[in-house]
Amino acid sequence: MSRSRNILTKKGNNKPKSCKSRGNAFSLHVILKPTEEKFMLKDVSYSMTVAQLKEDVEFATGIPISIQRLSYLDEGELQDNTDLKTNDFVPEGTVRLKVWHMYQELVEAVTSNDIDWVFRLGVTSSSDYHTPASDYMSKKLRKEWLEDRALIALCLAAHRGHEDLVVSLIEYGADVNKQTATGKTPLHFASAVGNSKIVNTLLQHGADINAEDHSGNTALSVSERFGHQICSRTLFQFQWQQRAKNLKPSKNIPLLAHQYFDSNLPVWKRGTSAQIYVSKILKPGEFEGTSLSAPRSGKHPSLARRELRDATFFLDNSSVSDVTPGQSSPTDSGLLSSADGKKHLTNLKKPLTYQEWLEKQNEMAKQMALEKKRQTIEHIKQNSEEADVSQEENGEFGSEKWLENTDQGETEKSAQDMLLSAHQSALPGDCSLLPVHQDGALRMYLRSLGKSSSGVSYEEWLNEKEMEINRLFLQKNSNISGSV
Fold this sequence. Notes:
By secondary structure, the chain is of the alpha+beta class. The protein is built from 17 helices and six strands. Residues 319-342, 381-413 are annotated as: Disordered.
């Protein structure tokens, strides 16, 4: 008696708990008496209570815990608040599962997948099925009783994978989201056996994928517990699809600091000279480093640098270059020693404003443009002088050549004139030869070409062709006169 009292106080309540891994686990065999079906329970331990064992049997057989009657070694029903060690369970033992007498025929009809038989056993609200106990029920209790029978049939059909029966029960009013005594829905039973086809059917008919049982298990966690990867993937994808449908874009989201001055916004167009605004994400005076390196006391380094800058301004470039190696310069923290600060105080200069900087940039641009223009003029002048010098050299050299070409041309012209006169005297009165050495457009063009790659002048080639044509013409006329 004291031993059982210690067990009750140790367990506390009879609520089933989900156990993913138990120490000293062993297996048990379960036989469903109405149908003589056999099932295997693998993750069983002596510390489990009968209530927890019934929850595992519920997943393994598809029989809701509310109509289970477990017996072991004898016909006596096991008590929910006792553990397996107290009931002398041994590994590979056999547990007999019976159902309440009023549900026995319904279980047989569902497991045999006989749809007509199932619908004759009171699974719809319009059914006239009755039992001796149901004759004394009120309309409200009878409605709840028929709904419970429809739920038991739907859970068992989903567990066995009878798709046609599942669809028929849902179409005739069975609630797909109704829960058993432990909070399980038909989707939990289909996920426990990894039947993806039944899972899809239940989801298409409005099954709640996020429904939890009394232990906090969803259909996805049940599928993962029993190692059904395909079913788990199906549930996971459907769950994300449902979340995506329920998401709506947020409106009036407050912008961050760097988003207020984004280049896509018209803010950058404002201000003098269309200057681009730059904003800091950190607030003024906020430390920019980590919390480990943050100063515990004293003035913030950024404020110290700012005060020093406002007091002493900045060093001019010329003064910085004059500083000797022994003299100190501004450090990374922006601090100067007092001696160096007094020494170079006369060389300090106020920083330029934006307008002053802009004027300085414009002046530099003008100077660069003038310098470029001056260089261009000098380059053009130099090129013209070189061209004049080369033209003079070519003119001196060309005068000598011109005299030689003139003498040679006169000689050739006199010889060709003599030949032409001889030919003209031998011709009849109404015949004429081609003009030789007449300055026409073709001759001027050939003269401009000079000589070919072989060294022959194009004009000389034309002269030879004219002389050849004249000779052929003379020969032809002589033959005509001889025949006459």
